[in-house]
Amino acid sequence: MSRTELSNMKQPPVPLATLIGQELRNGKIEKPFVKYGQAGLAKKGEDYFLIKADCQRVPGDSSTLFSVFAIFDGHNGISAAIFAKESILSNVLSAIPQDISRDEWLQALPRALVVGFVKTDIEFQKKGETSGTTATFVLVDGWTVTVASVGDSRCILDTQGGVVSLLTVDHRLEENAEERERVTASGGEVGRLNVFGGNEVGPLRCWPGGLCLSRSIGDTDVGEFIVPIPHVKQVKLSNAGGRLIIASDGIWDALSSDMAAKSCRGVPAELAAKLVVKEALRSRGLKDDTTCLVVDIIPSDHPMLPAIPRKKRSVLTSLLFGKKSPNSTNKGNNKLSAVGVVEELFEEGSAMLTERLGKDFPSNSNPGIFRCAVCQADQPSVDSVSMNTGSFFPPVSKPWEGLFLCTNCQKKKDAMEGKRSTRPSETA
Ligand SMILES: [Zn+2]
Q1: If you measure from the C-alpha of residue 405 to the centroid of ligand 1, how many angstroms do you get, rounded to a whole number?
Q2: What is the pTM of this model?
Q3: Continuous H helices in 47-101
Q4: What is the CATH number of domain 33-168+232-348?
């Protein structure tokens, strides 16, 4: 074949599978860029941010980067918010097994978040202080976003399709009937402030203490049915990326999720955070700490979320997330999966530790060393254990495989379920 003949030949069409493969190589497998900005005006000075954009899953290996963003909105003082900000990340990470693959690490994360929140609460309780805090903790690893939250700070996700979703659940007694039932069943009383000869005012609160939240870190003076067990949601974004807006109730009492997302579309994260705060102040004034963190997860080093042609995206997403295709007849899915740009990996909000950490092991007197699922302390299984160990179960339990609790953590678990109290005043 001569050179002329070669150059005259038509290029054969590129098969779709090859195109998809190129998309995967170019976009999906490469890690996205994470850009963030924060802004705020303080009224009470009780909102704290945690921003660690360059954590490493494997220390020293820069290919294992992940980012953490969190907000803590304190009440009755700031010590719980500061304590949580300083200790929660290490408490979460120490609950993840060593030497596991990235996929296993991400799968272990929801459980580790529960452990980290509870451990932080137990450690704060030992200080004997009474303040409390919300905690909304967001971990971004590649396209996977994992959010754990107690209280009423929120994280929302704005995706390329313009669909805004809430990744957290509000733990407010006023708005959460399930939580009201749980608190009441565990020994709390739920009601409003009683003033002026029996007139009830304000939101539903939990008594004793008068807290409006049903979950928090701290609040040791309220009652341990106010639990630190977080709602956890894990999603995987498409390679179109998305924007997270993380903020305390100072923003959300003024703006709906849609309003917050719309107020800052098309601008880089740093400016976006300022615009959200400005919009909240415009509609409500400075009545509370009004602070906001915007995190963009974007496919290239681009200052803002790029526009992706709708057609290309729908082909890709229907292939990548076949069972949650936007073109399928399965319309019963929630808003997130209905657009097909976000894959839901995990969601659990139960306040029961056994449901979150795994089943109890059957009782057995097998000798050995066991590791507490919450505080990670090793204990001999002879007298000092309050729970049961399995004979099938190797000495030194793998912390992600089931629920073994040391005496102290078992007490905490019982207290959260209303079975007894570990409040300092009653255990002293
Ligand atoms: Zn323990």
Answers
A1: 5
A2: 0.81
A3: 79-93
A4: 3.60.40.10
